[in-house]
Amino acid sequence: MPIYIYGLAIIRHQTQFNILNLLAMLLLIAIIWVVYRNSEWLIDSAWYYATQFLFGVAWWSILKGIRTMTVSQVLLLTFEFMLMMTIVHFGNIEIRAMIKRCMKLEKDNGYDFLTGVRNRRTFNEVSNEVFEVYSNNDLPVAMAMFDIDHFKLFNDQYGHQVGDSVLKYVAQLFSDELFERKTNAQLFRVGGEEFTIIFRNRTSAEAAPIVKAIRDILVEKDFEVKDGLDVRITVSIGVTDLKKSDQSAKDFYKRVDKYLYQAKNNSRNSMSVEGDVSSLS
User: Fold this and answer.
1) pLDDT tens for residues 217-274?
2) Is the pTM here over 0.90, yes or no?
């Protein structure tokens, strides 16, 4: 903003180019770069105030070239700026503390804060319970795991806010459809863009068509990433049964994870059911 205002003043012949103002601009850019690269570290450091002081000095030094100000006035405005940023700083600290409390509450409640579905801790508990029960009887249980294809592109191309919206949208769609179909299945977010579903009393052959049907609904509806721009979201899927040879719930999980990566290695937008990989249209 100060660079824009100063440049505009030069164009309008309200001031002349000054080497000191150029140095102030370079300092301003350098501070912005340092803050951008070290924001997490600076927020809790005493250096926060040093960077704010230098930022304020650079700001007002640039504007000094447009409006006549004494050095004392520049320093006064800098300290006023620092006072304002100190208020913002403590507000930021309080917001971060509130987020941490929410995340702790999420962990305690067993639900993912962003998507509203069960989290990884709950998945570990449930999968162990399922293994203990179903490994000792002849009732089937299946696990499906799916991953949003090219999810990193949503974050890199459209921003993390869009990426979060995609996660919430996909999780809500699968959760709603599993409920509507009376599957009695449980959905978990186990990683960044990875989800698992545990199907009690269903084989992989019975669970796979359900997951594919929900996936078909997902790809039929374009997702609006911003005004006038819609994209199609696809997923890669792995499905497996609990085997008699499984020694623990980890064996069960590792196998479905392996099948998911088979689907991803098949150009994504694919499904692997017990290692049988097929591309999805």
Assistant:
1) 999 988 888 777 888 999 999 999 999 999 999 999 999 999 999 999 988 899 999 9
2) no
Closest CA to 130 of 254, 245, 252: 252
Length of the chain: 281
DSSP string, 88-129: HHHHHHHHHHHHHHHHHHHHHHTB-TTT-SB-HHHHHHHHHH
Of 129, 193, 220, 274, which is the active-site residue?
193
Catalytic-residue membership of 193: yes
Q: Which two tokens stand for residue 123?
A: 């998945």
Q: Residue 74 is encoded by which pair of tokens? A: 């520049």
| CA neighbor of 219 nearest in space, from 236, 229, 233, 208 | 233
Round to whole Å and give the CA distance between 140 and 134.
Answer: 7
Lookup: tokens for 185? 């299945």
The end-to-end CA distance of the chain, in Å, is: 49
Q: Find, among 164, 169, 266, the residue nearest to 217 by Cα.
A: 169
